[in-house]
Amino acid sequence: MKRRFVIIGLGHFGFNVARVLFEDGHEVVAIDQNEELIQDIKDLVTRAYVADVTDKATLEALKVDKADVAVVSLGQKVDASVLVTMYLHEMGVPEIIVKALSDDHSTVLEMVGATTVVHVEKEMAIRTAKSIGTTNVMEHIPLTPGYSIVEVAPPGVFLGKTLKEIKLISRYRVQVIAIKEFIPERMVMIPPMDTVIKDSDLLILMGKDEDIKKIKELG
């Protein structure tokens, strides 16, 4: 379902959130005080405005209250993010997602109306630690007991070979349901059997935990 988003603040986080939402077919309005950032993103979103987001009248003039979701990412400007969040709440925006810099910042944001607070650096640190702490497994989704969907870096013995040559189903009793490619960046669902595995790929596998473990141990 198409939704209306307003992205306030176009640092690395805000810029990429805006771009991906627009690519996914949503209506996206981007706002930042930096004219250069607005020029960079204007062709990647529905509309883009140079504006002082700490001025409530400006936000009202831009009709941000019409958004289904607002995403606030103002870098190190703690006071500005709190003020903007409060304005959005007062204007009746139903969902307000704000990037926080600390637990205290998070508490204040929730007090003034944030519906969701994200700790990007903290969450990435946890995710990275879990990734490097479990060999080559990046993500793990348990299904029924003994079965999982796992995101795994391909073992060296898979590189340069096609899925047909690897014979995941007959040899390992594991199904590849998708491949996350980074060059180019895209997700290939139910990849064809002539797909060649690259060292920049991530395989998303489904099967018994014991069978997936054997693939992980191939190295």
Molecular structure report:
This protein is of the alpha/beta class and 219 residues long. It folds into two domains: 4-123, 3-Layer(aba) Sandwich (Rossmann fold); 135-216, Regulator of K+ conductance, C-terminal domain (Alpha-Beta Plaits). The protein has helices at residues 12-23, 35-41, 56-61, 78-90, 103-111, 120-132, 163-166, 168-172, 209-216; strands at residues 4-8, 27-32, 47-50, 69-72, 95-99, 116-118, 137-142, 147-152, 174-182, 185-189, 201-208.
Radius of gyration: 22 Å
How many beta-strand elements? 11
* Number of helical stretches of at least 4 residues: 9
CATH superfamily of the largest domain: NAD(P)-binding Rossmann-like Domain
Order of helices and strands: EHEHEHEHEHEHEEHHEEEH
Q: What is the straight-line distance between the termini?
A: 42 Å
| CATH architecture title of the largest domain | 3-Layer(aba) Sandwich
Strand order across the largest sheet = 3-2-1-4-5-6
Q: Main traits of this protein?
A:
Alpha-Beta Plaits; 219 residues; alpha/beta; elongated; Rossmann fold; five-stranded antiparallel β-sheet
Q: How is this structure best summarized?
A:
With 219 residues, this protein is of the alpha/beta class. The chain is 35% helix and 28% strand. The mean pLDDT is 86.
Helices and strands in order:
Layout: E1 4-8, H1 12-23, E2 27-32, H2 35-41, E3 47-50, H3 56-61, E4 69-72, H4 78-90, E5 95-99, H5 103-111, E6 116-118, H6 120-132, E7 137-142, E8 147-152, H7 163-166, H8 168-172, E9 174-182, E10 185-189, E11 201-208, H9 209-216
